[in-house]
Amino acid sequence: MCNNSLEIGHDLEDRMNEVATQFAQAADGAPYVVYAILDPTKTDPRSRYQALPFYVGETKNPHGRAIDHIRRALAQKDKYQSARSEIYRLMLANQLPRFIVLERCSTRAQSLEAELRWSQQLLKWSYSLSNCLPGQSRIINKLHYERLIANRLWKLTMVEAHAAGITITESCPSGCYRKVVELSACAASENSGRKLASLKETITACSRCQSEPTIAIAEQNGSQTSWKRPSHNAIDLPRLLSPHRQ
């Protein structure tokens, strides 16, 4: 092994598979997991974990995700200051990262919420994370946190939203109409892999009053977020609604 280059040999391949298999076993068959990557060369000064955590993520495929992290680190080397550079640094020292399960989830809507929640928790415990997104790289205020929690729903595919029991309605603000988007039909169609954000591209002005419709997404726990096409000088952010408002 050279000091500044790495290749995947049989030994490294075996070790990668061992790490990935251990991660998959820890998931215990959960549909989704939120996980942390640990640096085995550094001890945790807070003694919460067996090594120092430096990244939080979520996945439905623990084994494949672990392999992907390592292979991407090999490809990118230390070009970026991120989790990939941390993993590449470990591999130069003949080490591999450890993957631990922080939480098991039933749906991706749950895992995306848990991913943000755990990131914030570790940051508040004074761990430094290599994640790039603001909600996972630095501590944010309550309003920002709530907006990110609401906005995460737009990342779901039709299948994931249907599995999470999410309800979507489109309505005219003037009361001309209100219709429910049939997610079950979308999930079974060729559009099943499309994200909910694609719905923003399909709505048109109300045919009666020409008002811009509102799309509302409601979760099973009663929380709801809505979206309306922004004006040219507005920022496109979801609006938070209380569980009891429609």
TrEMBL record:
| Domain of life from the UniProt record | Bacteria
* Protein name according to UniProt: GIY-YIG domain-containing protein
Which organism encodes this protein? Parapontixanthobacter aurantiacus
